Amino acid sequence: MTKQEIKDEYKDSEGKPEVKSRIRQLQREMAERRMMSKVPQADVVITNPTHFAVALKYDPLSSGAPVVLAKGADFIAQRILESPPLARAVYYSTEIDHEIPSGLYLAVAQVLAYVFQLRQYRAGQGKRPGPMPDPTIPDDLKR
Predict the structure, then answer these.
(1) What is the pLDDT of residue 79?
(2) Sign of CA dihedral 84, 90, 91, 92
(3) Which candidate, 126, 94, 89, places its Cα nearest to that of 111?
């Protein structure tokens, strides 16, 4: 067999690289659309304004931890809270649709408490909260 025949046989058996690349691109686009459709359901989006963003959903009635609905770079959402260290920690330690690690419970609870206080204030049911406290992030989860 010639070199060209070997290449052609490989393409026939494994598929053309161009087609495989296009399929992967379409899969990425569909996953991104699915993920982005969940952002409006998030209770909070925590960002490092130029690099990372994570959208979290928390149901206080369930016994579970907050869940990552979406993560990535430069998301546009209605509620954006800037906390670069926490955004990086959640981004690197948690997959989409998974609960956050227990080491981040306190930091995320601080952010969610602040967001819920803001909601109450805007609804006329509470006093105006002070500045957002710096979330406490364990050293082993810092990036």
Answers:
(1) 37
(2) positive
(3) 89
